[in-house]
Amino acid sequence: MNPLSKYFTPGEQRILLFLVGFALLGLSARFFTEKSSDGVDSLRVTLAENDLRIDLRNPTLDDLIALPGIGETKARAIVDYAKNPGFSCREDLMNVRGIGKKLYQGMLPYLIPLDNETVVEDSLLLVDINRAGVEELMAIDGIGVVLAGRIVRYREENGRFRKIEELLDVEGIGEKILDKMKPAITLGD
Length: 189
Description:
Elements: H1 10-48, H2 61-65, H3 72-83, H4 101-107, H5 120-123, E1 127-128, H6 134-137, H7 145-158, H8 175-181, E2 185-186
Parallel strand pairs: 1-2
């Protein structure tokens, strides 16, 4: 005898069974998704905080793959180039197949200056917040993929930024983050 038949009709029992099965499926999917996304979330945090610093004299494959826009193939090409002929400056990255100016600029904040370079070069790189895509915006100190996406979405919905302070209208950007961003951004023409 089915103990549920006392409380539910056969149709209601089928619906209840379906809902329980659906809930179990959702819980198991959430469990496996959380397991696999933990690495991605911690990676985003690392990149957003700009803690990842790469020395091109001895780059590691894992560190390079963690950079935005760099997959395993480009990472291997960079490691190979570091071995022969070697990097004399960070700009040599553009000699590696698949690394153009745009990708180089996105990588620059994560690269340790080589002996003949100065940190001042990083401050000369300005990101146009009225034209930059998500990857370019992520090159700004303190901006991760979520905030970069919000900036692009805000710009699409409201038009060009007329003054830098309008960034405060973007969800998640406060005075502290804006102050951190100001040296690296421009409104363009």
